[in-house]
Design brief:
The protein has helices at residues 15-26, 43-52, 66-75, 91-96, 98-118, 153-171, 205-214, 241-256, 277-288, 312-318, 326-341, and strands at 6-10, 30-35, 57-60, 81-84, 123-129, 176-182, 184-186, 220-223, 235-236, 238-240, 264-269, 275-276, 294-297. The protein is of the alpha/beta class. It has a domain at 6-186 and 238-270: NAD(P)-binding Rossmann-like Domain (Rossmann fold, 3-Layer(aba) Sandwich). α1 (15-26) runs parallel beside α2 (43-52), α5 packs parallel to α6 (153-171) and α9 packs across α11. The longest helix is centred in the first third of the chain and has 21 residues, at 98-118. The protein is globular. It starts with 5 loop residues before the first strand and ends in a 5-residue tail after the last helix.
């Protein structure tokens, strides 16, 4: 590239967005971050810049505000692509606040697409989710596995977001999009300078585990022990955040190299293995030597019983293979938890 390829990363200081920004820097791109800090903070930028060795251009913008969104596109008229993470993402919160989820997640996407059309930005990588599969009857799920009804409003926003993008691609053949359906992101950057640091109470399993281990929580509950699984707890496919970040970079490179067979491709991103909640707890205990205080509780609204990926399409077409396993996830997440909670003791 004669000039660095500029990429707008929405939700760029969020958990997955921040790690993707680092991966983009490492692969010769110039990322520009947009985030309203709904579930992150400006201190994330320090971690990004320390790891990447580059200064990050960041804009504090709420993407549901069209005028503010458009100003970012005006400032960078030669963007090569957008990686769209920005969204509210808590399953249980979406059940309680459906209107907020539909408004935030769909209006922000519509505003971004409208600006991409106006400023002729050719490539979109969309942060989708395995939640679009619902309670799939087929495991592992593949990209052409039929979608079952969404189990919560958050999942519905991802189903609708995918459909909006497909319809847009059908109407604009020169526009290219990739929908990345990822499974359960977890872990932290190996430097322990950056990881999952939600400003809202953590709801994902791995930060709940590490917060329990370090004493921020008196204990944790396993939500449901009567599922039809190996040990009665839910099965999920945990993917290391650095593996996930790299897949976004590879997806963008795939579009830039015109390797796509259609202008709207879908890829699953997971490690292809189901891990139960109890197995994840035991993996943490075994990899760190720390015993967790956990209790067995009832099922939680919006949870599906089991879901894990077949990622062979991403391996074949994107050249992407996960490099980390569940123990790596737990070890890096624990190092990050110690770093952010007990500075100097990680």
């Amino acid at each position: 590239m004669s000039r660095k390829s500029k990429v707008l990363v929405t939700g760029g200081t969020g958990y997955i967005g921040s790690h993707t920004v680092v991966d983009l820097f490492n692969n010769g791109f110039e990322p520009i971050s947009v985030d309203n800090y709904a579930n992150s903070g400006p201190e994330v930028i320090d971690g990004i810049e320390s790891i990447a060795g580059h200064e990050l251009s960041h804009h504090t913008v709420d993407l549901t505000n069209m005028a503010a969104t458009r100003r970012v596109f005006e400032e960078y008229p030669n963007l090569d692509g957008v990686i769209h993470f920005a969204a509210l993402k808590l399953v249980n919160e979406s059940v309680e606040k459906p209107l907020e989820y539909y408004q935030n997640n769909l209006i922000s996407l519509l505003n971004v697409l409208a600006c991409m059309r106006e400023f002729k930005v050719p490539h979109l990588i969309f942060s989708s989710s395995c939640s679009v599969y619902g309670q799939s009857k087929a495991l592992p799920v593949m990209e052409d596995t039929p979608l079952e009804p969404a189990q919560c409003p958050y999942a519905s926003t991802k189903v609708m977001g995918e459909q909006i993008i497909r319809d847009y691609c059908a109407a604009h053949p020169a526009f290219k999009a990739i929908l990345l359906r990822y499974f359960n992101p977890a872990g932290a950057h190996p430097s322990a300078l950056m990881g999952e640091s939600p400003t809202n109470p953590a709801a994902n399993l791995v930060p709940v585990i590490t917060e329990t281990a370090i004493g921020k929580r008196p204990g944790m509950a396993v939500h449901g022990t009567d599922y039809n699984t190996r040990d009665g707890s839910c099965i999920r496919d945990y993917i290391h955040v650095m593996d996930l970040a790299n897949a976004h970079t590879k997806a963008l490179q795939f579009l830039q190299q015109n390797l796509d067979a259609s202008n709207c491709e879908t890829f699953n991103l997971g490690i292809g293995q189901g891990v139960t909640v109890l197995e994840a707890i035991h993996a943490f205990e075994e990899s760190t030597g720390i015993k967790l205080n956990y209790s067995l509780g009832p099922r939680r609204a919006g949870d599906v019983e089991a879901v894990y990926a077949d990622y062979s399409k991403a391996a074949r077409l994107l050249g992407w293979e996960p490099q980390y396993q569940i123990r790596d996830i737990m070890q890096s997440a624990w190092a990050w938890e110690q770093k952010r909670s007990l500075p100097g003791q990680a």
